[in-house]
Amino acid sequence: MQGLITKSTGSWYQVQTPDGQRIDCRIKGKFRMKDITTTNPVAVGDIVDFEMEPDSENGVITNLHQRKNYIIRKAINLSKQAQIIAANLDQALLVVTLASPRTSLGFIDRFLVTAEAYDIPARLIFNKLDLFSDEGLEILADYKSIYENIGYPCFEVSALDGTNIDQVQELLKDKVTLFSGHSGVGKSSLINSLLPSLDLRTHMVSEWSDKGMHTTTFAEMFELPQGGFIIDTPGIRELGVIDIEKQELGHFFPEMRERMNECRFNNCRHINEPGCAVLEALENGEIELSRYESYLSIYHGNDTRA
Ligand SMILES: Nc1nc2c(ncn2[C@@H]2O[C@H](COP(=O)(O)OP(=O)(O)OP(=O)(O)O)[C@@H](O)[C@H]2O)c(=O)[nH]1
Ligand SMILES: [Mg+2]
Ligand SMILES: [Zn+2]
């Protein structure tokens, strides 16, 4: 039998059958990926074959189908361990808040580079719009212009009062969509406002640390009545960029990618080379300094700041 992984706890996998049944399965045998060690061989979004165990309500996963794509998260710089967050995605939404908790530009950029590297279209969802002061709204406008100018669609929403939730609803139709972001930014709250029947657990952000409480502990996929699937994920504390060759890194910044053919040297690192089109664009303000700083930070391997 064939099914779709809708939840993974590490030892158990929930498999949805084509007729909508959900069966708890274990894994038999080895599912190794080339080149990387992952903590989970099978992830939400994977298509698998499974068999029912004799005299049991549970099944055993016996085969993993080829993935269209996947997104991996590396915990920290030194660790070789990586975790597949989800597989077979059409798009990834990064939920961002400017306060309670604050998402840094560096974190946004590392997420976007990761999505580019895995060839998954990314969009930014600025949540908690209801909390924004006038000053906050100005910062939001700055952030939005940085990312819209380089081609990432941005949305401003409030899961609390429902502002612009319809725009997100439209974005999701017939697609498999990953919701990602720091703990406490409102991923589960957003999914609840999109699918009110779900009633996922949410939790207040700590007043003391301004950090989320890591309420969602496992990735889980939900089917939308209008077609499509959404995947809720646990909050990401820090995001290491998975082994990208330094020479390749510029390709994952769209604004650098579109200029680097004009650099004088074809092995230009865009750091201090004469005739560098990227540095020229930086100087005349066509490339945002914060983006370039993220490039340097990832380039030099300081890529785990929260
Ligand atoms: N004011 C306001 N609060 C919100 C909004 N969205 C979510 N919250 C609150 O933010 C807190 C965290 O929300 P969650 O949905 O649990 O956040 P999460 O991203 O799922 O967090 P993890 O599961 O820990 O990764 C909760 O107290 C929510 O009520 C919003 O649009 N406005
Ligand atoms: Mg959550
Ligand atoms: Zn260059």
UniProtKB/TrEMBL annotation:
Alphabetized SUPFAM superfamilies for the sequence: Nucleic acid-binding proteins (SSF50249), P-loop containing nucleoside triphosphate hydrolases (SSF52540)
Top EC class for this record: hydrolase
List of residues binding Zn(2+): C263, C268, H270, C276
Amino acids binding GTP: N127, K128, L129, D130, G181, H182, S183, G184, V185, G186, K187, S188, S189
EC number: 3.6.1.-
GO CC field: cytoplasm
Keywords per UniProt: Cytoplasm, GTP-binding, Hydrolase, Metal-binding, Nucleotide-binding, Ribosome biogenesis, RNA-binding, rRNA-binding, Zinc
Cofactor note: Binds 1 zinc ion per subunit.
One GO MF term: metal ion binding
GO biological process assignments: ribosomal small subunit biogenesis
Protein name in UniProt: Small ribosomal subunit biogenesis GTPase RsgA
